[in-house]
TrEMBL record:
Gene3D superfamilies registered for this protein in UniProt: D-Amino Acid Oxidase, subunit A, domain 2 (3.30.9.10), FAD/NAD(P)-binding domain (3.50.50.60)
Protein name: FAD dependent oxidoreductase domain-containing protein
Organism this protein belongs to: Adineta steineri
InterPro entries: FAD-dep_OxRdtase, FAD/NAD-bd_sf
Occurrences of domain FAD dependent oxidoreductase (ranges): 4-196
Superkingdom field: Eukaryota
């Protein structure tokens, strides 16, 4: 059987390692630099299982979300958090006070592509600075301990060899087209899931990977009113 190393225990690495092992044709080792899986981006920010309307200006991206939404939904139903409401709002202005680039009819059209679309009366709900709002079916994905514990169980059941506290410093091509990690472990294939890091010394790919940083802002919500409806809110501009 072929041996495969997957580097990085985030969503990409964990899912790929699990799927490959389930095929039954490979030995799979998953390396994670930190003391546990899902301590990178996926353990903190995998908030929404995108149904599409987050991308009102890209039909292609929406189609990609729609094509895979129920796949993910069915495979990882244990890791989904369903909401009574998942509200999308169309802002009057963006953060720079420019008018929204999305029209009301465009906004409604893309939201209607989702299941359980329902228009919301923004006056009744007392939403300020919005042109329009609606709720759609869009659950959240678990983060933190819940995600970590469940996924470790899946990996164990599938017999994926998980090695934490192991930072891969380099990947080299050696004889017979094999690949060597940190000059000590040899594999037939290596899959790099370290979130935009190139670990190769002599580039294996015939092109250079361009690394682009995108500034982003994370908001932390605490529900102080326990009587509050369990909902998720996203504002589009
Ligand atoms: C603010 C914010 C909000 C987001 N909201 C959403 C959302 O609502 N829905 C959605 O689908 N996506 C969302 N995303 C995007 C999503 O979180 C990422 O696309 C996804 O988590 C990336 O997963 P990953 O496995 O590639 O990376 P990561 O989760 O970062 O995993 C990479 C892993 O590799 C390990 N690693 C790194 N270097 C090494 C090494 N040398 N050796 C061994 N291990 C190593 C790291 O420790 C880490 O565990 C959001 C992102 C951000 C920043």
């Amino acid at each position: 059987m072929k041996t495969i190393a997957v580097i990085g225990g985030g969503w990409y690495g964990c899912h790929i390692a699990l799927s490959l092992k389930q095929k039954g044709q490979y030995y799979v080792t998953l390396y994670e630099a930190q003391s546990d899986i899902f301590h990178g981006c996926s353990g903190k920010f995998g908030i929404r299982l995108h149904a599409g309307p987050h991308y009102p200006r890209s039909k292609k991206t929406r189609e990609s979300c729609q094509n895979h939404f129920y796949n993910f939904h069915d495979i990882y139903s244990d890791l989904l958090i369903k909401h009574e409401y998942s509200v999308y709002g169309l802002g009057i202005e963006d953060v720079d006070e420019y008018p929204s680039k999305v029209t009301e009819s465009q906004f409604k059209l893309v939201c209607k592509e989702c299941d359980q679309y329902q228009e919301i009366d923004i006056k009744e709900w007392n939403y300020q600075h919005l042109i329009s709002a609606c709720t759609v079916y869009e659950p959240s994905i678990a983060v933190g301990k819940r995600l970590r514990e469940k996924f470790k169980k899946y990996l164990k059941e599938a017999d994926v060899n998980l090695i934490c506290n192991y930072k891969v410093q380099k990947i080299e091509k050696i004889n017979n087209n094999k690949l060597q990690i940190n000059t000590e472990h040899i594999f037939d294939h290596v899959i790099n899931c370290t979130y935009y890091q190139d670990l190769t010394i002599d580039p294996i790919l015939p092109f250079n990977i361009e690394v682009v940083y995108q500034p982003s802002l994370a908001l932390y919500y605490e529900d102080n009113e326990k009587s509050c409806k369990d909902d998720a809110f996203v504002e589009l501009t």
